Each structure stands twice: as C-alpha cells, then as structure tokens.
C-alpha cells in the first residue's frame, strides 16, 4: 500500500486543495483499493490517481508516487491525450513541442534529441528509458529512436527531466532524462489497432492486444512499424530511397501473493535507415535490437522493495561507399553491443516527515566491432553503484530532497586483436560521486518556489576506450587520458496557478558548467596527412558553460479548448573550441512553442507550431577530408490534426507534418518534406 499511503499523506497535508466532490471520489478510490486489490496496492495506478488529482502522477523522481506539481525536480510530463492530439508519428515528433528540447530530424527515422543543448548529431547527453529500462546505447552514446519498442498510442506518459540527474538515474544522465512510460496492463486493460498511410509512400500501424486472464495474471502484446520513401534528396545524397522499421514487445504481469507482483517483458525490433554520423555524411544501417527484462515488487514491513534485471542486445552496421581523394572507399563496419543490468531498491516511509530510497546497481557491457569481417575491438566495462534519496518534509509546505550516488566504473586493458598491432590500451578506473539537492516551498496563492543544485557525470562511449587500430587509410588512436565529463548545475524554479483565467505558469532558470567536455565517437578530431592517411583520437574538449531557462503558460477553458505557450533560451559558451563540433554554435539559442487542442462533440482539432533560431551544423567534404560549417537558418515547424469519433470505438484522423514549408532545411542532411497522413483507430 506504499503508493496509497504517500498520496494519502500528501492530501491530508493540503485538505483545502480538494473540493468536497474530489474528497468523495478519493474516499471511494481508497475503499476500492482496499477492498479490490491488495494484489495491486504496491503498483502505481496512473489512471486512477490522474483522474483524482486532475494532473499526472509519477514515481520516477524519488521512487515514491508524487503529483506533477509536487515534484522535487524540473520535470515536465506529456500525457497520453497530449501525445495523441499532437498528431505526431514518432516520439521525437512529440518531444519537439517541449520547451528546452532540441530535435534534429536527419531522415524519416533518424533524429537527435537533446535537452538544453550541448549535443551534436551523432551523440547525446540525454539518457532515454522505456519504463525505467535504458534504451540509450552506451557503446556509442546515442539513442536509436526508430527502434523504440513502444506503440505511440500505448504510451501512458513521457517524463522529461531537465538538467543533470545522475544521482537518481546514474551515469549518462548529465544532460537530462526522458522516461517513456507505457500502460500497465494490470490497471489499464486496453486494446486497439491503428492503421495510417499517406504521402511519401507512408504506410504503417500499431496493434496493442491486452488481456486480463485473472486478478493474478495479465498480458499485453504490442506491434508497431511502418515503411516510407525517404525524403526527396536521398538520391542526390547517395543513400537509400526507402526506409522501414518493425518493433514488437510482450509484457506479462502477475501476482505471487497479495503484496508481491512481478513483470516479465521481451522486445525485438529491426529497421533499415540512413544514419547521419557527425562525420557529416550518411551510411546505411540495418540494426537489430532485442531485450529481456524481469521485475519483482514486494510491499513489505521493511518498505517497497523492487528488484529488476534486464539484458539489452543491439547489433548494427554501416555499409556504404565514400568517394574521397579521387578513390571510392567502401564502408563495411559492424558491431554488437550487449548490456546486462541488475538493480535493487527499497523505498521506506520512516515517518510522516521522512522517506528514504536505497538502491544498488551493477552493469556489465560488451562491445565487439569489425571492419569487413576483421575484428577491430572486443572490449567490456563494469559498473557498480549505490545511491540514496532522502525526502524530508521539514514543514507542511517546505520539503528538502537530497539524492547522492557513487559510481565505480572499470574498463580493463585490452590488446589489439589485429596481428600487425601489439599495442595494449590502458585500463581505466573511475569512482565518481553525483548528487541532486532541491528545496521546495509552497507559498500558497503566491506560488511554489524551488532551488536545486546538481552534479552529473557523462562517460566516454565504450568505443572510445578501444585500443589503437587501423583499417584502410584510417587509424584510430587510443587515448589513455580520456576521462568522464562532469556537469555542475544550479537552477531556480517557480510555478503558480492563475485561477481567474484557468492557467498554470511555470518558470525555470539554470546555469551549468561542464568540465572535460566529451565529443562523440563518430567525429573525434582528426589529422590528414597526404596523400591518404587519416588519424583520429577521442578527446576531452575543455569547458563548456550554459545558461538559460524555460517559461511555460498553459490552461484550458470549459468550452473544451486546451492551450499551451512556452519559450526557451539556451546560451552555450564553448571556451575551448578545439573540437571540430562547435558546441556553442550547435545549439539554437531561442525557441517558441505554441499549441492548442479543441474538442467539439465527436470532433477533435489540434495544432502545434515551433519556431527556433539559427544554429550551425556540419557536412563532410571528402575531396579535402574536412568538415565544413553549415548555417541552418531559423525555421518554423507546424503540425495539425483533425479527428472524428464517428463511433464509440472508431476514430478517423487526418494529420499534417511540416505544413509551414513543402521542404525544410532543418539540418545539413536531408531536407524534411511536408507529409499528410490519414488514420483509422479501432478500440476493442
């Protein structure tokens, strides 16, 4: 009953907030929870509590259930209704309309998503999770968005944490965290099929089949995929003309005894897509992703104990040809990345004022890379970590939350597998602390004030530790001195309800400093020695400072209209400027986002628009083996959707992407084209 206790405690501290009708509903829900299911009391029923409080609820910030307005961190939650009404066809399309997030679309499936800048095309400092399982790829520090094992309409909510959160989520959450939460079949037994098709040869769909066999067992099967023509200038860029993806997942949920439940999940997915690397060119990839995860939760007298373990497998390759130095050079590179992770946590309610979450994690990752079938590198790393989160309600309206984590990371010394090279790479051992500390004060009608300080850690990609190797005209040197980057962040937050106009205002300001900034595995600095020798080496690139913030105003009116307006500013200062990727110029400074959704009987109408200022991307010049800067001018992205609920179970929809321009230069890659899609959803 841990989630119920925490929310009960929260409500009793603010009795004036709930009108009598909601108190009655709350009492009814409590009785239903007590009478209908000790079996599910230890899991969070998002739907019930979101209906009760009129806002999303999450347990991602501290391990205990909390309302969105009470979170001890700078988090924005995108709800299921917002995802569907956006008309988006992918998770990056949804995230594009969130203040503080930058999305670059390099192809139909390929995208880079970053929080508050500091990212380049091929790498990311933003940790991405699906139901708490990492899908971020440590081997090369990026996320393959086309292989997310989730169906868009099955997503319960997307939780966006801005700023470093390594103390809660571990290494590689130094920029922020995106946690995608899908529906729990124990609490939301919903099934549907969705088909869509339209311009650019788009055809795809989703199938989610859920079934509750009994109060002790439920299952959910999810399938999603599509195929499409690549954007029009794919031919001139020398990459593939068609792309496709297919993903599947199976979740089993059940109960062992009244206070103990379990989950077993498996996923598989494959895609074919052009991949844009920070080398400023495309390569064709055909990756295969698989995962298996098990969880067990026990609501005991010692607290809410959770144990989970998962294994991720990702196999990919880059196959193409590049014309350089008057020659045609083949690219035939493939790799396998496997991660095994185990986590144990205990969330304890010490008394009415103090909650504690203790956690431990062990991770083992292997990477095997080959060129034309020849082994280049075979390496592994190990990580062990312990963390504690302490939530202290000093006064009814004053809360202090502290999170501390200690990570021990080890990469062994490795001998070069190529016979011609006997070099041994140096071993690496790091012990790094991270922390998040936030104080929150609820001043009633004056609003809610927050102050937070954090230290985040970003690891080099596992590939960056590979021994010196050579293939063709290129040589990659091992850097024995490479080390993690660290980010110190200070933030101020303010929010309040503006009741006369039914609106909610939030403001976040931040300043952060990253030391030993890391580049990406795809574009370390290189030296070219004529006639045909290219040498690269991963490096740390000194200090990068960032300052900025986000302001958001959103609300609704009784007529069925919901609206949202936000502004974000991110000013990056790259003091070192030694990287070929200029972090300062790679981030647009300003962006403005606006949108609305309107329900009128059986009809829904929604539209979202985003303007962002210019930034700088790169493109490769293989005739000279250089990277050239490309200025991407400020642009507008406009999406719209109209839907008709012509039957209780059926919905017809028409969505338009990139309506502001027939072709948009969003990056130095392919030009993004306007797309119209019709859809049919059947719920059963």
Structural class: mainly beta
Portion of residues within helices: under 10%
| CA-atom Rg in angstroms | 25 Å
Task: Assign an overall shape.
Answer: globular
Total number of helical segments? 6
Structure notes:
There is one protein chain. 8% of the residues lie in helices and 56% in strands. The two termini are 31 Å apart. It contains six helices and 40 strands. The model is unreliable at 1-5 and 7-42 (pLDDT under 50). By secondary structure, the chain is mainly beta. Pfam families: Plug. InterPro entries: Beta-barrel_TonB_sf (IPR036942), Plug_dom (IPR012910), Plug_dom_sf (IPR037066), TonB-dep_rcpt-like (IPR039426).
How would you briefly describe this protein structure?
With 684 residues, this protein is mostly beta strands. Mean pLDDT is 86; it is low at 1-5 and 7-42.
Strand and helix layout:
Elements lengths: L1 H12 L6 H17 L9 H8 L3 E2 L7 E2 L7 E5 H6 L5 H5 L5 E5 L5 E5 L10 E5 L2 E2 L20 E8 L3 H4 L6 E7 L9 E7 L3 E13 L2 E13 L12 E16 L2 E18 L3 E5 L2 E13 L2 E22 L2 E23 L4 E18 L2 E22 L2 E14 L16 E15 L5 E11 L10 E3 L2 E3 L8 E14 L4 E13 L10 E4 L3 E4 L7 E13 L4 E14 L15 E11 L2 E10 L2 E7 L4 E7 L2 E10 L5 E8 L5 E2 L7 E2 L1 E9 L1
Parallel strand pairs: 6-9, 25-29
Antiparallel strand pairs: 1-2, 3-8, 4-5, 6-7, 8-9, 10-11, 10-40, 11-12, 12-13, 13-14, 14-15, 14-16, 15-17, 16-17, 17-18, 18-19, 19-20, 20-21, 21-22, 22-23, 23-26, 24-25, 26-27, 27-30, 28-29, 30-31, 31-32, 32-33, 33-36, 34-35, 36-37, 37-40, 38-39
